[in-house]
Design a protein that fits this description.
The complex is a heterodimer. By secondary structure, chain A is mainly alpha-helical. Chain A has one domain (about 1-290): MetI-like (MetI-like fold, Orthogonal Bundle). Chain A is built from eleven helices and two strands. Chain A has a two-stranded antiparallel sheet with strand order 1-2. In chain A, α4 (about 90-105) packs across α6. The longest helix of chain A has about 35 residues, at about 260-290. Chain B has two domains: about 60-190, no CATH class; about 215-435, Orthogonal Bundle (MetI-like fold), CATH 1.10.3720. Helix content of chain B is about 65%, strand content about 5%. Chain B has 19 helices and three strands. Chain B has helices at about 15-50, 70, 80-85, 85-105, 115, 125-135, 150-160, 175-185, 195-200, 215-245, 250-260, 265-280, 290-315, 315-325, 330-360, 360-365, 380-385, 390-400, 405-435, and strands at about 55-65, 140-150, 190-195. In chain B, strands 2-1-3 form a three-stranded antiparallel beta sheet. In chain B, α12 crosses α13 (about 290-315). Chain B is extended, with a radius of gyration of 31 Å. The chains are: A mainly alpha, B mainly alpha. Chains A and B meet through α1, α3, α4, α5 and α6 of A and α1, α10, α11, α12 and α13 of B.
């Protein structure tokens, strides 16, 4: 019995381990680097002369921008796909389309990363680059917010669609019957009855997808670039929290320099950000489920 | 109000527009599905289109005379003496063989034999040396040997390298390609299936043609073993406790919330944990599959706990009641009755968790499984766990970073290998579910 209990508490130990390992090094980091500069500074330029500027804002901007592009792709497509699967599709279409969509979710992120690096990036340059298809020169290199965002959007489609599909299916049939009985068409029923009823759950699903996007690493490492800047142009390369964690912690790292230790501060910021989103999302979804059970 | 239509049989304009809106809405849904499926097709098409080339490689057949005067000056076939001849000592043999190649196939070229020998891979001399060292009795004879050609020539045969693209290339010239065309026509230079890509080791960034993914597969296999050995018992034990014994209190509530949150923590965070705890505090070796396995175990554990719990929840309470009714203890009821019935579900969940872990890359970057050449395969089980190695997705990432575009083909090929494993694992999981699933 004791064995069983200790196995169950490993999950808690892991969480404590994650938090402690990062807090410890983060405290270390803030002892040698001013925390106001980290949170409120506006430049990210690590170097080895010792006068690095390590501010999280440009990274946070890149992260949120790319995630927003990804959600802009994934939410409409995923939501419409879910509505179609749940409300219109016959059992046979459903039985083929749903597993195929979930196949997209089972593909490892390294595949999406390579797709962004070798196919989508150069493809976008051919469209928007110098001498490209549209005759504009908006894009200089293959790495950009758009490259990473589009590919990440593809990755998130099945995530949004399967969560929303479950939620739409959980809306009681009596609501639909009532609306259809009053003479509404199916699309009116969906837009004015089913979707509003499912809205909290769908918001929860989108929040979970956002947390996925923020924590995604391989696609942005291979598709987004390494330039930390705050800009509104989606054709420019930008960088994210996760890519900087990777670049500060790979290679020969010296665990006393702020350039390395900053990765732990970034890590804990990322952890807190995604944890917050997850907690809110789970609470929303749970509350919504209770409403109809 | 829009005017009502006069007849019951003709729809009035308002109804018509509502119906059109309905059809449009339905079309949007269908378009979304088709768009996602099209994206899936494009993605898989890109992978297969770019990656299949890696499974084929071009070889040039040469008749090499293993001159005793070059390889074994003393003539007593002493293996130590033979080993002293470095790869430079083998260069003249290849040049001579290239000379003979030009004569026998009547190749029309202004190039010297030395430049024809340069069509071969940089690994050709060491392959030849390995052959001689392994079997010194061949010295003095003439052997027919299939050498890898370099990545440019291979790319030319595969259509990746064209005469336009090599204009500024120092590695190969148009005259060499002319010779290549004649060699292909003569049947000396052929493209065939390349088992070495699947079984071989990585090669330095000068020799993409001889890079293989076998060693990375061994690394992944070692990690998966660690994950399986650690997560299956712990995950099952945890879910037995939570599902069958746990009292409903704040602590178990906390554990449950914790597990579902842990499943959604970004994988890179587990990499930071691995670096901080396993490498900096416990001083386990960098790049070791053991560390990779430990990190992936922590990541996979929540997945396995969640699916095991679902499997145990689906076993009806009547089974437990019957066991308890005939006098079994609660432990016996669980271990003798509930667990065997839940086993297929648990197994399915475990395989899916392992498949997820197999494709995970980000945490492996932080514990150093990328950035070096995994050129030697581990020989013992201890080596497989503790010696630096890479893993399938890490090897793919490593190839994608290298400058020579010939490595991109390797990376896509590696993805095909990875996807074959994932498809196989998921197929097994689906079969298990179909075969053993019981509806109560």
């Amino acid at each position: 019995m004791g064995l069983l209990i200790s196995a169950a508490s490993i999950a808690i130990l892991v969480t404590i381990g994650i938090v402690l390992s990062m807090v410890f090094e983060t405290v270390h980091f803030f002892r040698i680097y001013d925390w106001t500069n980290f949170f409120f500074g506006s430049t990210w330029s690590p170097n080895f002369r010792g006068d690095s500027e390590l501010a999280i804002l440009p990274l946070l901007w890149g992260t949120l921008y790319i995630s927003a592009v990804a959600l802009l792709v994934a939410v409409p497509v995923g939501l419409f796909a879910a509505v179609y699967l749940a409300e219109f599709a016959g059992p046979r279409v459903r039985a083929t389309a749903k597993p195929l969509l979930e196949l997209l979710a089972g593909i490892p992120t390294i595949v999406y990363g390579l797709f962004a690096l070798i196919t989508v990036g150069p493809g976008l340059v051919q469209l928007f680059g110098e001498g490209g298809f549209f005759g504009v020169s908006w894009m200089a290199g293959a790495s950009s917010v758009l490259t990473a965002g589009l590919v990440m959007g593809i990755m998130l489609i099945p995530f949004v669609s399967s969560l929303s599909d479950d939620i739409i299916n959980a809306v009681p049939q009596s609501l639909r019957d009532g609306s259809l009985g009053l003479g509404a068409t199916r699309s009116e029923t969906i837009r004015q009855v089913v979707l509003p009823a499912a809205l909290p759950g769908i918001v929860g699903a989108i929040l979970l997808a956002a947390s996925r996007a923020i924590g995604e690493t391989m696609i942005v490492v291979m598709g987004a670039g390494a330039v930390a800047k705050i800009s509104g142009n989606p054709f420019e390369a930008m960088t994210t929290i996760t890519t900087r964690i990777v670049s500060q912690l790979t290679g020969d790292s010296d665990f006393t320099s702020p350039e390395t230790l900053v990765a732990f501060a970034l890590g804990i910021s990322l952890f807190v950000l995604t944890l917050g989103l997850n907690l809110v999302a789970l609470a929303v979804v749970r509350k919504y489920r209770e409403q109809y059970e | 109000m829009t005017p009502r239509s006069r007849s019951l049989f003709a729809a009035d304009p308002q109804i018509q527009s509502r119906k059109r809106a309905d059809a449009r809405f339905r079309l949007y849904g269908l378009a979304a599905i088709l768009a996602s499926l099209a994206l899936l097709a494009v993605l898989l098409g890109t992978v297969i289109g770019n990656g299949l080339g890696a499974f084929q490689q071009s070889y040039l057949t040469l008749e090499v005379e293993l001159l005793e005067s070059k390889l074994d000056k003393t003539g007593n076939r002493d293996i130590e003496e033979i080993k002293k001849v470095t790869t430079f000592g083998y260069d003249p043999l290849l040049t001579a063989a290239a000379e003979r190649l030009i004569e026998t196939h009547n190749i029309q070229t202004d190039l010297r034999a030395k430049d024809i020998a340069k069509l071969l891979s940089k690994s050709a001399v060491s392959d030849l040396r390995d052959f001689v060292v392994a079997d010194p009795s061949q010295i003095g004879s003439t052997v027919s040997f299939d050498f890898l050609v370099n990545a440019r020539v291979d790319g030319y045969l595969k259509g990746r390298v064209t005469r336009e693209s090599i204009a500024d290339d120092k590695m190969i010239s148009a005259e060499q390609l002319d010779a290549v065309d004649q060699l292909v026509a003569a049947g000396a230079l052929v493209k065939r299936f390349n088992l070495d890509f699947i079984l071989g080791s990585d090669a330095s960034d000068q020799r993409p043609e001889s890079a293989g993914i076998g060693t990375a597969m061994l690394g992944s296999l070692a990690m998966m073993l660690v994950v399986l050995v650690l997560t299956l018992p712990v995950g099952v034990a945890a879910s037995i406790y939570l599902e069958e014994f746990a009292p409903k209190n704040r602590l178990t509530d906390l554990i449950e919330v914790n597990i579902s949150n842990l499943a959604a923590v970004p994988s890179i965070v587990f990499g930071i944990l691995g670096l901080a705890v396993f490498i900096n505090i416990l001083h386990l070796p960098m790049s070791a599959p053991l560390v990779g396995g430990l990190v992936l175990s922590l990541m996979t554990l929540p997945t396995i706990i969640i699916s095991s719990r679902a499997a145990m929840k689906s076993v009806p309470p009547s089974i437990r009641d019957a066991a308890l009714g005939v006098g079994a203890s609660r432990m016996q009821a669980v271990f003798h009755h509930v667990l065997p019935l839940a086993a297929p579900g648990i197994l399915t969940g475990t395989i899916i968790g392992l498949a997820q872990a197999l494709g995970e890359t980000a945490p492996l970057l932080l514990i150093g499984m990328v950035g070096f050449i995994a050129s030697t395969a581990p020989e013992t089980m201890g080596d497989a766990l503790l010696a630096p190695n890479t893993a399938l997705p890490a090897q793919i990432f490593e190839w994608a970073k290298r400058a020579d575009p010939a490595f991109y083909e390797r990376a896509w090929g590696g993805i095909i290998v990875l996807l074959v494993f994932l498809v196989a694992m998921n197929a097994i999981a689906i079969l298990l579910r179909r075969r053993f699933e019981r509806r109560w």
